[in-house]
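Late entry, evening session. Most of the bench is empty. Finally got around to the prediction I had been postponing all week. Sequence below, unchanged from the version circulated by S.P.
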Amino acid sequence: MSPSTGAALRLLAATVDAKSVAEIGTGTGVSGIHLLHGMRPDGVLTTVDPEPEHQQFARQAFRACGFASNRARFIPGRALDVLPRLADAGYDLVFCDGDRLEVMDYLAESLRLLRQGGLVVFEGVFANGRTIDSGPQPTEVIRVRELLRAVRESQELVPSLLPVGDGLLCAVKR
């Protein structure tokens, strides 16, 4: 994750005064650290990843940054298996950095999870420039294009595309 993407995540979490954030794709914890820095001091990050090793690494990284263990809830598993168990309208921000083939499903789940005025953020929507390339594209790029179109056309969302890192698609739920 680029420093500019991290700074944007921090800002976005602070902008919605995030107390409850869901993250799809824990990875090594870099995005989670930025989100936690932007969240309220009593905020909790719920992070989902199919790889328990990633979550263990992230847990150590959060601790090394001085975050108390109760600031993050780690749920191992596929996002589409875990997200349906999370509370409706219980989140201020949903950050999606998971499987690009599942982005449309992540969008549907995010709309359910977000409170009114909440924010959904998708990372990597430029797909290294491939989303605007006119040539044949792999399925993951086609899915990202579908996501961009769906968010743009949604009456339920106010979208913006931030040109930081590999692109952040942000949308506020009306």
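Two things to note before I forget:
The domain at 3-173 is CATH 3.40.50.150 (Rossmann fold).
The chain has a mean pLDDT of 94.
Will write this up properly tomorrow.
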